[in-house]
Design a protein that fits this description.
alpha+beta; Helix Hairpins; about 35% helix; elongated; Adenine-n6-DNA-methyltransferase TaqI, Chain A, domain 2
């Protein structure tokens, strides 16, 4: 902590600041320019088609130019909206107040009216304001300031009047240099951990695919499955349609206008209760009564059944952790005879993209009971189903533990970064 004398800033999200620092407004020290309204067509012969940044191009400390767009600019607007290396870019809409320094990634380039170009006046640094905005955002002040029932906007008035800590240029320089170095180190570790998790996810997918289509015995004789996306399978395995192994149970929804149908003790699963990472589903956001179940014509399925979201989105798959029913956005597979449902869970998991391709519809895609019933599955002997499921439970558990550890490290580093920037920008540590 700082040994210097501190005082109350009078701003809750800033807290105490050094005695010699002051609180003012951003507009006194920075020139803020909002971008041009979208102009899809030329108005004059002299208009030119130019690149521009919109809110979708701007993230915290990052610009993306792979989807950069163009619109028409008059000659008189070129200088007004042009970007120069070193400008601070801040979003007016989208992820409001997201900021980064423009490095001249595209030249020339201009700004659209969901983006601000900020240029510091003498004695102030754009990068210091960047860190100041980061504090305002991560403390929740920006979101509170821009809170609206529809779409949030960081208006020019809000930006101009944003409380701003005024401090000498040399102290700004020290803060920026310190944070650039420390945040750079943190960001490198975060990127490294993210890449590790991407590789773990790919390895997990390939591990499952190999096990559910080739088995665990690498020396087993193989045969052509006749299915392009499966390839060869062990000779002793069969290929069966879902409908010959499982009953496809459709979901339904009780009338929302009848209170007696709702707030019961029966799990009623919708796609919103599921995720692509989920293994077992044990609870639902809404529950229905026995009367509600009887009214809509669906049925309870036993624990261990395979639940599949078949619309918005298609291909979320999980095991029923207890007896349940679903709405019409899901279907459930209930086996006719003894099968290892976990094996088929893993197989369907890696075929989520194929299932999605089977979706049909005009307003939204839906996987029909017929198409799901005709979907082809490898059928190993029951003992192999169980062995593969047990193997994948163990291996995927190990991979998921590593991935979760990386996620925890990333979260801890992000929290540390927020604290580091807050302490430096508000002068609670002396550099």
């Amino acid at each position: 902590m700082s040994a210097r004398k501190m005082k109350d800033s009078g701003i809750e999200w800033i807290g105490e600041i050094p005695e010699e620092w002051e609180i003012s407004k951003v507009s006194y020290f920075y020139k803020i320019t909002l971008g041009k309204m979208l102009q899809p067509n030329a108005k004059e012969e002299s208009d030119t088609l130019e690149n521009y940044l919109c809110a979708l191009n701007v993230f915290w400390n990052k610009i993306t130019t792979d989807n950069i767009k163009q619109m028409w600019f008059a000659k008189s607007e070129i200088k007004q909206y042009e970007l120069t290396a070193g400008d601070l870019i801040v979003t007016e809409g989208g992820d409001v107040a997201a900021a980064c320094i423009w490095e001249g990634e595209v030249n020339p380039c201009y700004i659209q009216n969901a983006v601000y170009r900020v240029r510091s006046l003498p004695g102030f640094l754009n990068k210091y304001l960047y860190y100041h905005l980061f504090v305002a955002k991560t403390t929740g002040y920006i979101d509170m300031l821009c809170n609206k029932a529809t779409i949030a906007h960081f208006t020019k008035d809000k930006f101009s009047n944003l409380p701003f800590i005024v401090l000498p240029l040399d102290e700004q320089q020290k803060i920026v240099a310190h944070l650039d170095e420390k945040c750079g180190e943190i960001d490198k570790v975060v990127v490294s951990k993210q890449k590790q998790n991407e590789q773990l996810a790919k390895y997990r997918q390939s591990l499952i695919t190999e096990a559910v289509t080739k088995g665990l015995n690498s020396s087993a004789p193989m045969k052509d499955s006749g299915i392009e996306w499966i390839g060869e399978i062990p000779e002793k395995w069969e290929i069966k349609k879902v409908k010959y192994l499982f009953s496809v149970v459709n979901g339904a929804t009780p009338k929302s206008s009848v209170p007696e149908y709702w707030d019961g003790d029966i799990m009623w699963i919708t796609p919103a209760d599921m995720s692509f990472e989920m293994f077992e589903i044990k609870d639902s956001r809404q529950k229905i009564t026995a009367a509600g179940l009887a009214s809509c014509g669906t049925t309870l399925v036993p624990k261990g059944s395979i639940v599949i979201s078949t619309r918005a989105p298609i291909g979320q798959i999980c095991i029923a952790g207890k007896e349940l029913c679903t709405n019409q956005g899901c279907k459930t597979l209930v086996c006719f005879e003894e099968l290892c449902n976990e094996y088929f869970y893993y197989y369907l998991k890696v075929q989520a993209k194929v299932l999605n391709m089977l979706g049909r519809g005009t307003t939204f895609l839906e996987l029909s009971s017929r198409d799901l019933g005709d979907f082809l599955l490898p059928l190993p002997p029951l003992s192999e189903q169980k062995a593969i499921a047990a193997y994948l439970d163990k291996k995927c558990g190990e991979i998921d533990a590593l991935s979760e550890r990386n996620k925890n490290i990333i979260e801890s580093l992000r929290e540390y970064k927020q604290s580091l920037i807050y302490e430096a920008v508000t002068g609670k540590i002396e550099l």
